[in-house]
Amino acid sequence: MYKKSIAGLVIGCLALTLVSFKSESERYFEIAKNLDVFATLFKEVNTYYVDEVPPAKLVRTGIDAMLKSLDPYTNYIPEDDIEDFRTMTTGQYGGIGALIGSRNGKVMVQMPYENSPAHKAGLVIGDEIVKIDGVNVSNKTTSEVSKLLKGQANSTIKLEVRSYGQTKPRTVELTRANIMVDNVPYYGMLDKEIGYFQLSGFTVDASKEVRTAVQKLKEQGAKKIIFDLRDNPGGLLHEAVNISNLFVDKGKDIVSTKGKVKEWNKTYKALDEPLDKEIPLVILTSSRSASASEIVAGVMQDYDRAVLVGERTFGKGLVQATRPLSYNSQLKVTTAKYYIPSGRSIQAIDYTHRNEDGSVGKIPDSLRVAFKTATGRVVYDGGGVSPDVEVERTTFSDIARAIASKGYFFEYANKYRAEHPSIAPAKDFKMTDADYQKFIAYLEDKDVSYTTKVERELEELSEKAKEGKHLDDIKGELATIRKKVSHNKANDLTRFRTEIQEMLEAEIASRYYLQKGYIESSFDDDPDILMAKRVLTDSQEYASYLKLK
């Protein structure tokens, strides 16, 4: 009987192995078959298609479409784009150190980095780049101009630049340098006790920059800290682990990764002693805080180490790795999902199960699973990290959006800078009534036309009434409402002065104090920062958010 059982077990295992081998063999046959179909199809198209077919472009289209069917983060990186990819992951490149953009067909300096070659050479926001090493850039894309500006460190470059109010361009000669884009573009004190720092990325040395920012803030007297992760798209996983480690005990689990290749599954722990595990901490999040920034926010929430203020985060709980391909190209491929200490995944979209039309949907709240933080607070998976204190998103008026989209804030800030040699510190700078009236006068001959939500809805109502043959019945009422809306629009510059002025003040402050000025200008009217200050100021309120109710 015993021998029969052993024999049965052996036969069963052998059968399972054969089935497994067969299925794997069938899979490899499917791969080989479809690659052969693709190759023969490409050959036939190349031979018989009516026009010449660019091989590289056609194959690239096929690759991109194939990878797009998986998820947005699995990408093919050809050799030509490797340098840009390296810049994204390291934050470093050879160049002049300035953000550029296109406005009204002109290539403009959007923001020179402090102490960069561009800044030292006197380039300012609003300068128009006319030529680069003799090459006219008027018809080139921002990407093409960016490639012309980049190059080996210590190489020279000549720009023809036209400043605001000037008719003739001047020649500026610069020496390119290794530009390191700061992960922490700003840190400073909001008041005598509350420090603030912003983390904009997770490239190499992000954790060192955060450590330095926190240490400097404490030296300046910070007893409480606001850590701004809003709109941070993420980056390197190990930097998220190291940043989390700054605030939680050595040995604590930070994040686990689980994927198809079991050997790659790993639990990352806090390996070092924390920098500070006691200082009250508020983390600001937004709907565009993603990936590595969600790891940090989620870890701080799971260990009840910080109060999260703002919006629910994006919900990207996927891990990517790069794999080398032939001809110096690479594949960035999703290899795993990550799980934060409570055991939850924050991935919001299920790319595996698509709808019939190929679209994907977010995981509904009703299907989210409950987990618990260290103190027993209930948190949920499957839809990003939800804040402990939700702040309603600011929606800008139609007129403010129209002024911004048409570049009038940008242009007027350049004009203001040319007419005013200096202004008060960014935190204190405020436009006077006379200043605002000058801005209104500036807009008088500008196209500030826009369609309000009410006008759009009136048009829809009018169309539906026309289809139903009821337009004549309500034509008079519609005309009255349109007249009222038109009258209101004429007063919008006055009605929405507060938000328009705040946006303009930030733009003007950046002309004198660059990125730091833009950030500091928002401190007195940013709803997330104001809420964070309130939470930190009241120690009982702060503690209440971190306890099981």
What does this structure look like?
With 549 residues, the chain is α+β, with helices and mostly antiparallel strands. The chain folds into three domains: 92-180, PDZ domain (Pdz3 Domain, Roll); 186-393, 2-enoyl-CoA Hydratase, Chain A, domain 1 (Alpha-Beta Complex); 398-534, no CATH class. It is built from 17 helices and 21 strands. It has helices spanning 2-48, 55-68, 82-90, 117-120, 142-149, 206-219, 237-245, 292-302, 398-405, 408-419, 433-443, 453-467, 471-490, 492-495, 497-521, 527-537, 539-545, and strands spanning 75-77, 92-95, 98-103, 106-112, 128-132, 135-136, 156-162, 170-175, 177-180, 186-189, 194-198, 224-228, 253-259, 266-269, 281-285, 307-310, 318-324, 330-339, 370-372, 378-380, 389-390. The strands form six sheets. The protein has a six-stranded mixed beta sheet, with helices on both faces. Strand 19 and strand 20 (378-380) form a beta hairpin. The longest helix is centred in the first third of the chain and has 47 residues, at 2-48. The relative contact order is 0.08. The model has no long low-confidence stretch (mean pLDDT 91).
What descriptive keywords fit this protein?
single chain; 549 residues; alpha+beta; Pdz3 Domain; 2-enoyl-CoA Hydratase, Chain A, domain 1; 3 domains; six-stranded mixed beta sheet; five-stranded antiparallel beta sheet; 21 strands; globular
